[in-house]
Predict the structure.
Amino acid sequence: MLLVDHVTKIFDPGSISEKVALKNVDLFLNEGDFVTVIGGNGAGKSSLLNAIAGKFFINDGRILIDDIEITNMPEFKRAQWIGRVFQDPMMGTAGNMTIEENLSIAIRRGKNRTLNWGINRNEKSVFEKHLSELELGLEERMKTKVGLLSGGQRQALTLLMATIKKPRLLLLDEHTAALDPSTGKKVMEVTKKLIADGGLTVLMVTHNMKDALEFGNRTIMMQEGAIIADIPLEEKKTMKIENLIQLFEKKSHTPFANDRMLLN
Ligand SMILES: Nc1ncnc2c1ncn2[C@@H]1O[C@H](COP(=O)(O)OP(=O)(O)OP(=O)(O)O)[C@@H](O)[C@H]1O
Ligand SMILES: [Mg+2]
């Protein structure tokens, strides 16, 4: 359902600060794939997600979702198929608006926002149902301004907003990295549930190798703008973090020394 075909992204081409962020990347995702993405700092993980989401245009190659070529489509048009959650809990929700107002924006995505601004009773009950499934008590706080929520609550709400309209593709970029470990764990549980319930297709960047192995049905490893390994479910099942490090060293020909790739 997603095809990334020979994609290259060069920042500041021709200048002294030229940087090849993606080097001839090929990736195909089947419907329902949940792929975790690992790699060191600057490996190109965020660039891969940004290229797909349309944050910038690529220099070479093409990108298709459901056989629709989106390579030259602006970001806002791609948003009809793509849900995103970033690392920063402040992004993705409007802090000065209430939980229900934020959710009403999410369900109106892609529609004319000047029409029918009120939140009707039916929508409220849908929001309440979804919020209660997060098991964070947010269904009791629908009129609370989002700016008053904790980082974890806010990230869980952002996830709900990104998935409530069932995107064809969900992109998660270290969305638990700014949270404390126990909140991060809780948000990962929410993530897993929303993905399973929606049968979503997902690319999830993580620095946590344990999460990378535990979640999803496939793991890709990136280094210097390229995908250097693509690990299927059968291998993931038996793989330990040590094996992942060995694979990284074998494929990248560099010793493993990345303190941001968490070992626990
Ligand atoms: N907007 C930009 N302008 C110039 N260079 C950029 C830009 N965005 C990314 N890069 C460069 O492209 C390379 C890949 O960056 P990217 O953010 O994709 O890495 P990453 O794998 O997400 O790393 P991290 O783990 O630190 O988040 C890096 O060298 C980075 O400095
Ligand atoms: Mg990144």
User: Anything to note?
Assistant: The CA atoms of residues 31 and 67 lie 12 Å apart. The mean pLDDT is 92. The radius of gyration is 19 Å.
